[in-house]
Each structure stands twice: as structure tokens, then as C-alpha cells.
Amino acid sequence: MTFQRARSEEQREVRRRAILETTSAMLDEMPVAEVSLNELSRRVGLAKTAVLRYFESREAVLLDLLDDRTTTWLADLEQELAHGVSPSGSAMQRAEQTADVLSGSLSTRTVLCDLINAQGGVLEHNVSVEVIRRHKRASLDNLAVMAALARKHLPEITDHAEEFCLNALIMAGALSAYTSPPPSLLAAYEAEPALAVHQIDLRTALRLAIITSLIGMLPRP
């Protein structure tokens, strides 16, 4: 992919989208930690200095991608919840169904979970105040959408919807870090099977965490 110098806002937006789409493709091949500006610039067909005209740092690119992927996921989640949660069920039944849908949906989106896991400790560093403000505004918008979906299907947690959704995302990110062990750890598990108790299935672990959180937020009968 080769670009001429962008001379209009429309052309600049084309460059930005190309950088984001290339980064997204890279994340289908490698974890967030291995994405570098050098490799990104090579794949997108721009000099590293040119990429930095559109995004001030590697972290800024990944934060924008996190916001985009979260927005896309929430659009899918709306349909998944509509099909997976029965409005006629009891509060406990709907809580279990919500946990099933959320854990299933997030566990199939490993790139999103990896980005969430890196958000606080890595991606929100090495960025300017303006970038972090834009990202946090987008995060709040996405959280509001997710909370509205939670209230729709489980109105019993209305007062805690934002808190629940934020916790669910944080849990998805944190747990995802343990679901792809490095070769040395897999070898240790194979040599000493008792150690494999620490190896988790993301969907199973996330469902347990989500349902536990939801039960704690349901009103007492």
C-alpha cells in the first residue's frame, strides 16, 4: 500500500482508517505487546514519521482501535442479548442468561480482551491529555450503551448497571491474560499436570465472575 501526501481532511481520514485497519489485522496475528510502530509503518506503506502525523504514538493508535472494536462489539451484543435473554424469566434466570451471553461474546473476541487488558497499564501511558480525553469520552459513551443494554434485560440492577459493566470488561481483560500460556508454561503443565489448575478457560472463568457479580447486585427477595 503506497500513499501520496494527504492534502485534504478526507485524505487524512483515509490514512487514519488505513492505519487502524492495518493495526487491526496485525492484532489478528500477534498480541498487543508485539505491535510496533516500525512494523505498522512497513505494513501500511508509510514512513514511521508519517504515521506519527496521524497518531502521536503506538498507544494512541491502539486506544482508537480499542474504542472502535468496543463500539462494533456492542452493536453485536445488542442482538446477542435479544436472542439469549428471555424477558419472561425470573431475575435469577435472566442473570444467568446474561452471564452466558456476555461470557460467550467476550471470550470469542480475544483481541478486544487483549486491548482491554493493556488499557490501564500500557495504552493510557505515552499519550497526550487530548488523546486520553478523547479516549475517555469514547469509553464513557460505550459504557453508557452497555449499561443501557444491561438495564433493558436485567432492570433489577439499574442502580449498579455502569459499575457491573465496567467490572465485566475489566474481568474479561484480566482473565484473558491467562488463557494463552507461553510455550514454557505449557511445557511445565505437561511435565507436572498438577500445575495446570492455573490454566483457565476464558468463557468458563468469565461466566463465573460475571454471574457472581450479578448475584451480588440483585435485590434481596
UniProtKB/TrEMBL annotation:
The entry's keywords: DNA-binding
Gene Ontology MF terms: DNA binding
Stored InterPro entries: Homeodomain-like_sf (IPR009057), HTH_TetR (IPR001647), TetR_C_34 (IPR041483)
DNA-binding region per UniProt: 36-55
Pfam families per record: TetR_C_34 (PF17929), TetR_N (PF00440)
Gene3D superfamilies from the UniProt entry: Tetracycline Repressor, domain 2
Organism this protein belongs to: Winogradskya consettensis
Domain HTH tetR-type positions: 13-73
Protein name in the entry: TetR family transcriptional regulator
SUPFAM superfamilies hit by this protein: Homeodomain-like
